[in-house]
Here is the input.
Amino acid sequence: MNKVKRAILITAIFTFFLYILSGCIGVDTSIEMNDDGSGVLTLSYRISRTIALLGELDDQDKTVPLPVNREDFNRSVLRNPGITLNSYTQSENEEDVFIDAEISFNSVKALNEFLKSDEGDVVVLQNNGGISTLTYTLFPGMENDLSEENVTFLSTVFADYGVTIDITVPSDIESLSPGMTTTNARSASVTYTLPEILESDQDISWEIVW
Here is the structure.
């Protein structure tokens, strides 16, 4: 990653998590993966009504990096014939919008097109002699771009913010990357705080083998 791209990425990250601070308090992601690369993605998050409105107004060049309404999800489906919006529910109170969505994907390629990363595929699925390995890259390493002051700021202000990802695979799990925990024989979960993500100078990725 060159210096210009890293600078842009850091700016985007700070912008995003300032939005998080003002309303969106967490994102839970769940993936049920089949051996052929198809599966189901479930997203659940809460976002402030102010940020949701900004996302609606900023339709062409998305400043808010999350779908903020059903139309956002419908546009993703139209752009990607490999995904289907199975369900969508939205509720709100005076301050926040609550979104739950379930999406089917027919291949890992379709899933990656929905997840969209300039750094490459987020999900890689390999099968070798009946042994399947799923690699999930949550975030590219920052290559020490953050100053000590910025790290201290992030660790203090965003200490309670976390990203949780749950993966369910079709057979019993044989091995996991360090930091992951099994919730049952075929499911594993991992949670990262924002400081953990941005302090890393290596890609944050992990593997599940079954």
